[in-house]
Write a structure and sequence with these properties.
The chain is an all-alpha fold and 199 residues long. It has two domains: 19-126, Rna Polymerase Sigma Factor, Chain: A; 128-199, Orthogonal Bundle (Arc Repressor Mutant, subunit A). 78% of the residues lie in helices and 0% in strands. The protein contains ten helices and no strands. It has helices spanning 3-9, 14-43, 49-65, 77-98, 102-108, 114-126, 128-136, 142-153, 158-165, 169-198. Helix 8 (142-153) runs antiparallel to helix 9 (158-165). The longest helix has 30 residues, at 14-43. The radius of gyration is 21 Å and the shape is globular. The chain starts with a helix and ends with a helix.
Length: 199
């Protein structure tokens, strides 16, 4: 056994440290590439900057704790992170809807610095149109709504959205086409109704 091999096999040796450094660098790249998109995803769903910050943080805490289990063969890192974000948001909605642990969440919420609050308020304001679209998506079936959110609002490619939703890319393209057509019809009807109101 060479000295290099022995060092790499020792707990805390340079081989283990190098793998940890590589994993940390990989997660940092994943974080930097996706944090804005994930924050926007939550800003379209909540106008409260604390909730947006908490959900974004929860998403990346979950991602970092399960980063070693990420399998590139099952999809892109972006689709994996958005899958986590969807689960985080679903869990948040369930908890909020049932109003359990409300006092504990409020007591445990950290105060945001004024510049952080302002930045999140700017992001939330920038996503106002996206929130209106998300609200309009309420008439679509759940899977079609999630698909439009992932592709048209979050910017995932259809193949990535297929991996997040667990459907084939062909099914994604067909559902996306139908959902967009339905949204266009709704927009035309809404615009005509607003035009009639202003006459």
């Amino acid at each position: 056994m060479t000295e290099r091999t022995a060092t790499a096999r020792q707990p805390g040796g340079t081989g283990a440290r190098s793998a940890e450094d590589s994993a940390a660098a990989g997660f940092e790249r994943l974080y930097r590439a996706n944090v804005e998109a994930v924050t926007s995803y939550f800003a379209r769903r909540s106008a409260d900057p604390h909730v947006v910050a908490d959900l974004t943080a929860d998403t990346f805490v979950t991602a970092i704790t399960s980063f070693a289990s990420f399998d590139r063969g099952k999809g892109t890192a972006r689709s994996w992170v958005f899958g986590i974000a969807r689960h985080v948001y679903a869990a948040h909605c369930e908890a909020y809807g049932q109003q359990r642990d409300r006092l504990e969440r409020l007591a445990g919420r950290r105060d945001l610095e004024p510049d952080q609050t302002e930045e999140l308020l700017d992001r939330i304001d920038a996503e106002r149109a996206g929130r209106a679209l998300v609200t309009g998506l309420g008439t679509l079936p759940d899977r079609d709504r999630a698909l439009v959110e992932l592709v048209d609002l979050a910017g995932l490619r259809p193949k990535e959205a297929a991996a997040v939703l667990g459907v084939t890319p062909g099914a994604v393209r067909m559902r996306l086409m139908r959902a967009r057509a339905q949204l266009r019809r709704q927009a035309i009807t809404t615009n005509q109704t607003r035009g009639d109101d202003h006459d």
